[in-house]
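Quick one, tokens below. Sequence please?
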């Protein structure tokens, strides 16, 4: 029965808004529909997207025809065809007709398709699978820095693979890119970016350095030595399916972070192996490589202060930022830094104090610990901070000190951020006494 003095609320699509009916049916003859907001559970709040940053545009490049790909001597429409007069010819022909009428092609595993498969590795054993086993995706061995070197005069072959950026001087960036697919890739675009120290990389904070192009052979092609290639659209060193590419523009880190910025390289071919313009997560996409490593070369006591952006959340959620102390033998990148498969760094025997201040709003001041003795700093730091993230951008300050770091000792500190239990960003600090 209709409640006394009230009508039936209806949100029938025929009128598109809330209407009160006194009958059991709408004017269109359909049953009345209760307002949805009275029946559905409340929706989870969403954060507004961060302001977009203009994506670097493409430019016209020479489009010379690529090499002719290998072709089969047997036409594909005759593969598996029974001999003439065979009773299986009719079922075979019907199957071919079904293939023609199918709505779209049939694909097998990506590794078996005649397509490129572009990659920047997160570790030496990376083959492109995501998510990455072990979760450490920000120590790429395929991103190199040559400090105090202008890109216009830098060699194609990086002088060192473990170089550390210097602030306020030109630095040259390199990338080692791979094609693990069955098809070659032509005019592959390589983009270089830098970020202020962050535990949540996104396009909003990206700072474009430069871009270039490269051609890559298929995964079956491997030259015995590096070959120099010079084309109107780029220059690189190649061994067939992989190449080392130099960024054409110099990068000048600011002294504000003492050169401890994050580096990101993206590799993609727009048609056959494309990449979302907003994708900057190395942990989610094989086309993206990330190097978030700070090397602190210091005499005792060795200390470092870093302020990390926590990125832009999609929605309010519980978050956690923590630091763990790892032995130098557990960091593969140190082999590049030392130029030796056995770097020879021993873990320090001295106590390590490392932790965070509570998260704060962007631009807020944080306490300065440099005036305090080392033994008084540890009680002020927490190795793990748990908090609820809203939609506002946050930052967190990190401090670490080793009071007695000896010669040829090193300590690795890995910092991680998890939001809703999912790891979204990380950063590694290496404290070394030469």
């Amino acid at each position: 029965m209709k409640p006394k003095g009230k009508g039936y609320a209806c949100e029938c699509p025929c009128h598109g808004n809330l209407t009160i009916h006194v009958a059991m049916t709408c004017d269109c003859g359909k049953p009345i529909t209760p307002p949805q907001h009275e029946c559905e559970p409340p929706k989870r709040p969403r954060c507004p997207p961060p302001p977009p940053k203009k994506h670097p545009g493409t430019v016209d490049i020479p489009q010379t025809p690529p090499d002719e790909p290998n072709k089969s001597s047997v036409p594909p429409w005759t593969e598996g065809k029974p001999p003439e007069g065979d009773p299986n010819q009719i079922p075979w022909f019907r199957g071919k007709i079904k293939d023609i009428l199918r709505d779209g092609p049939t694909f097998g595993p990506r590794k078996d398709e005649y397509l490129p498969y572009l990659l920047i590795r997160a570790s030496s054993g990376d083959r492109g699978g995501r998510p990455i086993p072990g979760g450490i995706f920000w120590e790429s061995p395929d991103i190199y820095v040559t400090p105090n070197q202008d890109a216009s005069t830098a060699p194609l072959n990086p002088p060192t693979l473990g170089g550390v950026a210097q602030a306020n001087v030109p630095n040259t960036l390199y990338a080692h890119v791979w094609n693990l697919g069955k098809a070659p890739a032509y005019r592959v675009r390589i983009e270089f970016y830098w970020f202020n120290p962050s535990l949540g990389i996104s396009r909003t904070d990206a700072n474009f350095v430069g871009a270039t192009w490269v051609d890559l052979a298929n995964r079956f092609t491997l030259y015995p030595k590096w070959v120099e290639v010079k084309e109107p659209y780029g220059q690189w060193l190649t061994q067939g399916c992989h190449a080392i590419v130099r960024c054409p523009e110099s990068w000048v880190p600011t002294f504000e972070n003492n050169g401890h910025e994050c580096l990101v390289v993206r590799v993609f071919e727009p048609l056959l192996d494309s990449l979302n313009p907003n994708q900057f997560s190395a942990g989610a996409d094989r086309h993206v490589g990330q190097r978030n490593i700070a090397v602190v070369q210091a005499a005792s006591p060795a200390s470092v202060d870093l302020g990390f952006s926590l990125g832009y959340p999609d929605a309010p959620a519980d978050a956690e930022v923590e630091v763990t102390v790892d032995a130098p033998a557990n960091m593969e990148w140190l082999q590049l830094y030392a130029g030796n498969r056995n770097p020879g760094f021993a873990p320090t025997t001295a106590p390590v104090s490392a932790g965070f201040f509570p998260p704060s709003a962007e631009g807020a001041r944080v306490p300065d610990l440099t005036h305090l003795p080392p033994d008084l700093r540890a009680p002020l730091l927490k190795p793990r901070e748990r908090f609820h993230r809203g939609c506002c951008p946050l930052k967190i300050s990190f401090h670490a000190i080793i009071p007695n770091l000896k010669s040829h000792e090193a300590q690795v500190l890995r910092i991680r951020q998890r939001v809703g239990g999912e790891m979204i960003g990380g950063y590694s600090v290496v404290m070394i006494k030469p």
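The first helix runs from residue 89 to 101. DSSP finds three helices and 22 strands in the chain.
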